[in-house]
Amino acid sequence: NQAGPTTQLSWLMPPGPAGQRSFALKKTRPAIKLEMMARRDAASGQFDLTDAGQPVLRYNYATIAPGDVVAKVDAANRIYAQARSDYIHPLFGLNGETLTQDWSVDHPHHRGIYCAWPEVDWRGQRGDLHALQHVFARPTGECKPTSGPVFAQIEAENVWLWENGESLVNERAIIRAYHA
Question: Is 52 helix (H, G, I), strand (E, B) or coil?
Fold first, then answer.
């Protein structure tokens, strides 16, 4: 017998006289409708959460390069137009309106919703995960979407790298949205 995932089965004993009773276990399809969906977009590598088919948010897990945005950013702010990942954008309101912004021309390092430490000291140097200077969050490839009737979630692993080289922090992000 190989070790594997276990399942627990529970039931209430029906009323009746003591003695031997027979039960039949039947496998049926769940009657529960999966309202909340979390899935990876194959084209972009990002993860989308939806509620009854309506968009809730996009988790930008795969690294996004600035692309054409760099040309629009003034020379003083160009150093902040760096490739980034590990953030939410867009986040949608209950009426479908976009609540976040990305790639601002005057602050190109600002991005939707993200967690970042503004000053990271490493081997005598100072980096800034918020301003994308020397420290960058990068996906490890371990990202698990979960869908269900009550909530959808994304459990993602990222690593904070110094100059995209040495690993500083292993981050586990859990993003969960509940059915409206």
Answer: coil
Beta bridge partners of residue 127, listed in sequence order: 120
Secondary structure letter of residue 73 according to DSSP: S
78: exposed, middle or buried (Cβ count in 10 Å: 0-12, 13-18, 19+): middle
Q: Enumerate residues 6+ apart whose C-beta is below 8 A from 63.
A: 83, 84, 85, 138, 139
Reported as a single tens digit per residue, the pLDDT across 109-132 is: 999 999 988 899 999 999 999 999
Q: What is the pLDDT of residues 52-90, one digit of tens each?
A: 999 999 999 999 999 998 899 999 999 999 999 999 999
**Spatial distance between the Cα atoms of 58 and 55, rounded to a whole number of angstroms:** 8
Measure the CA–CA gap between 59 and 154, rounded to whole angstroms. 8
The residue written with tokens 């399942």 in the block is 7
Euclidean distance between the first and the last CA atom of the chain, given in angstroms as a whole number? 44
Give the list of residues 6+ apart from residue 124 with CB closer than 8 angstroms, or none.
none
Q: What is d(CA 17, CA 136) in angstroms, rounded to the nearest whole number?
A: 67
Give the residue from 138, 143, 55, 69 showing the smallest Cα distance to 102. Answer: 69
